[in-house]
C-alpha cells in the first residue's frame, strides 16, 4: 500500500451574511484516493501526481480554488484566500523526493560550481593570456619605443655631430676668411704705403725737375724760344719777301703780257699791212722775207742745242724757226695765210 498524503488546508471564507470564519481541514489520504469535495476537492482524477503537487504547490492551490469555490459558494461561503501550509506523508516519500530534488539541486549546484570554476579558470586563463598578450604588446611597444628612442638618439647624436662638424668647419672657414681679410688689409696697407712712397718720390722728382728747369732748362728753353721766334720771324720775312717777289713777278708778267699783247696786236697789224703790201709786190716780197731771216738762222746754227732751245728765232711775222731744219730750209710763203693770220709756215725738205 502506497504512502498516504496528509493535506492541511487553511481557508478564510465569508458567508453571505457577512460573517468571516477560517476553516481548517486536515486530511490523510493515500496517493490514489480523492478527498471528498466538501473537504479538498481535487481538480480532476489523474490531473496532478504527488510529485507535481509537492513540487508545484501554486498550481495545485489554483486548481483547488477553482474547483472548491462553487461548492462552498452554495453554502454561502466565499473563499477570499487560502494557504497550503504543508504537504507530507508518514513514509517519508515526499521527503525522499525532496532529498532527490535536493541531490539534483546539489548536483546541479556542484555542476554549476564546477562549470563556474571551469568558466572562471577559462576566463582566468583567457584573462592571463590577454594579460600576457597585453604585457607582450606593452613590452613590444616598450622595446619598439626604446629602439625608436635609441635610433632617434643616434640620429640626434649624428645630427649633433654633423652640426658640430659644420660649426667647426664654418669656424675654421670663417677664421681662414678673417686671416685672409687681415692679410688683404695688410697688403692694401702696404700698397698704400708704397703708393705714398711713390708719390713722395714722384714729388721729389718733380721738385728736382723744377729745380733743373729753373737752373738749366728754362734758360735753354728761353734761348730756344728766342731763336725760334727769330727763325719764325725770318721765315715770315722770307715768306713775305717771296710773296712780294711773286706778286712783283706776277705784276711784271701781267705788264709784260699786256705789253706783248699790245706788241702782238701791233705786229699783227703791221704784218697785215705788210701782207697786203707783199701781196701787191708778189715774189719780190717773199725773197725779201727770206733774206731778212738769214742772219738769225746763221747765228742759231752756230749755237748748241740748249742755247737753241732758249733762243728761238722768230720770223718777221713772229714764227719760231727750228734750227735743225735750217740747213735744208725751203720756204714757201702763202699770201693767203699771211692775209688770214699773218703766219708763215716753214717746212723742211
UniProtKB/TrEMBL annotation:
Domain Band residue range list: 46-117
Keyword Signal: yes
GO biological process: protein localization to plasma membrane; regulation of myoblast differentiation
Localization: Membrane; Endosome
Keywords (A to Z) from UniProt: Endosome, Membrane, Signal
GO molecular function annotation: protease binding
GO cellular-component term (any): flotillin complex
PANTHER family xrefs: FLOTILLIN-1-RELATED, FLOTILLIN-RELATED
Subunit structure: Heterooligomeric complex.
Protein name per Swiss-Prot or TrEMBL: Flotillin
Source organism phylogeny: Eukaryota, Metazoa, Chordata, Craniata, Vertebrata
Amino acid at each position: 500500500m502506497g504512502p498516504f498524503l496528509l493535506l492541511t488546508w487553511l481557508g478564510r471564507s465569508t458567508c453571505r451574511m457577512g460573517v468571516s470564519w477560517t476553516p481548517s481541514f486536515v486530511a490523510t489520504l493515500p496517493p490514489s484516493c480523492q478527498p471528498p469535495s466538501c473537504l479538498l476537492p481535487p481538480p480532476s482524477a489523474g490531473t496532478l501526481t504527488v510529485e507535481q503537487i509537492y513540487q508545484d504547490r501554486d498550481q495545485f492551490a489554483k486548481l483547488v480554488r477553482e474547483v472548491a469555490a462553487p461548492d462552498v459558494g452554495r453554502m454561502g461561503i466565499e473563499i477570499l484566500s487560502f494557504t497550503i501550509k504543508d504537504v507530507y506523508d508518514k513514509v517519508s516519500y515526499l521527503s525522499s523526493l525532496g532529498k532527490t530534488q535536493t541531490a539534483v539541486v546539489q548536483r546541479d549546484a556542484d555542476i554549476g560550481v564546477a562549470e563556474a570554476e571551469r568558466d572562471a579558470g577559462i576566463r582566468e586563463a583567457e584573462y592571463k593570456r590577454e594579460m600576457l598578450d597585453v604585457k607582450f604588446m606593452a613590452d613590444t611597444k616598450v622595446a619598439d619605443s626604446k629602439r625608436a628612442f635609441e635610433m632617434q638618439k643616434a640620429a640626434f647624436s649624428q645630427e649633433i655631430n654633423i652640426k658640430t662638424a659644420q660649426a667647426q668647419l664654418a669656424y675654421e672657414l670663417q677664421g681662414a676668411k678673417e686671416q685672409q681679410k687681415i692679410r688683404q688689409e695688410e697688403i692694401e696697407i702696404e700698397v698704400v704705403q708704397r703708393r705714398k712712397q711713390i708719390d713722395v718720390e714722384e714729388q721729389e722728382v718733380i721738385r728736382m725737375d723744377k729745380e733743373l728747369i729753373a737752373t738749366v732748362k728754362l734758360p735753354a728753353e728761353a734761348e730756344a724760344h728766342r731763336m725760334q721766334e727769330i727763325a719764325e720771324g725770318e721765315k715770315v720775312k722770307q715768306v713775305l719777301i717771296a710773296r712780294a717777289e711773286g706778286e712783283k713777278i706776277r705784276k711784271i708778267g701781267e705788264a709784260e703780257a699786256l705789253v706783248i699783247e699790245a706788241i702782238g696786236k701791233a705786229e699783227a697789224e703791221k704784218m697785215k699791212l705788210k701782207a697786203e703790201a707783199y701781196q701787191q709786190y708778189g715774189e719780190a716780197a717773199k725773197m725779201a722775207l727770206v733774206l731778212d731771216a738769214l742772219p738769225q738762222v746763221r747765228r742759231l746754227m752756230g749755237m748748241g742745242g740748249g742755247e737753241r732751245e732758249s733762243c728761238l728765232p722768230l720770223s718777221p711775222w713772229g714764227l719760231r724757226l727750228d734750227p735743225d731744219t735750217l740747213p735744208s730750209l725751203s720756204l714757201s710763203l702763202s699770201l693767203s695765210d699771211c692775209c688770214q693770220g699773218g703766219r708763215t709756215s716753214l717746212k723742211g725738205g
